[in-house]
């Protein structure tokens, strides 16, 4: 049986971050990371389209927490301890410069997730953190002051155990057997599938819009991306995150209403259409897109309003004007199914937050049992926020462990 001071389960972002921070503070400790597979940091590698969206340029804790459908209240205190600016400083001190894009997302200046992976693996090696691959945990139990951990091939003992396994059903089941409450997981970040073949033909078009889901309180603004399967983009991903459980209960079958003009209402649009009718009286309605919409999208909206392609502006009757103004501001689409957002699967669910001491990221039920990352019932919208949760939890857990007597 191998003995360690601290055993970390999960060689992902949170696991490495915790191990490095702890080893830098307490280099004399014997620390190991157990990874169930052959590869390390898989989620880091694919995040941000392979660029790794490290965090988000939001520097006010009260504003930052608003991006977490689950965990908003619990993370406020931790973010006062370690948040975006601390993350940026942490990486820069270790040779990884970050840049901020227009939408606030932060990436390494290399635009490569491998930069983050190399930073973690090289630093862990320098600090003599053992990284043990193909060690899938099958059980863990607390025996007096020690944690006994078994894998398919090995057995370990440690004075403290940190779980950073993300959305891992097997680990959740082991925690449930111990006595922790696990909130059943559902998909959080996903795109919407539609059956409108004409709309799918507009794949690649992006526009700012207001989107709401009928028969719910769910609505959001932002970029809406048309895809060959339906709807994506930040506006949709926000809805999927905030409505994770509501939409799961609907079996992902519901109606969305889209205002393609975002902030204009039907009355305002009708007035503008009347102005356009006078200004472009002799021009064909299809020939020139209005309201800064992409031409293909404009033509789709005009056509689905029931207006013939041969119509000039002057020929529009009152009924057609009303139909077009309604289509521009209240397009109704049936959603039937979801698709995973790229490779960045995020789930809502995990260890019940009531059972966690967020000053330490330690279990309230078992001493010397810590958590970091998505193993907890915390998730965020897309944009680097899920990683920030991982950095914050891992840092605070490591700081707590660094103060313990081993």
Question: What can be said about this structure in brief?
Answer:
With 406 residues, this protein is of the alpha+beta class. Helices cover 35% and strands 26% of the residues. The chain has helices at residues 13-25, 42-50, 61-64, 72-81, 84-93, 113-126, 169-178, 197-200, 234-242, 244-249, 266-279, 295-303, 318-330, 385-402; strands at residues 2-9, 31-34, 55-56, 98-100, 105-108, 130-132, 137-143, 146-151, 155-163, 182-187, 190-194, 206-213, 219-226, 230-232, 253-259, 331-340, 347-351, 356-357, 362-363, 369-371.
Can you give a write-up of this model?
By secondary structure, this protein is of the alpha+beta class. The protein contains 14 helices and 20 strands. The radius of gyration is 25 Å and the shape is elongated. The relative contact order is 0.19. The model has no long low-confidence stretch (mean pLDDT 95).
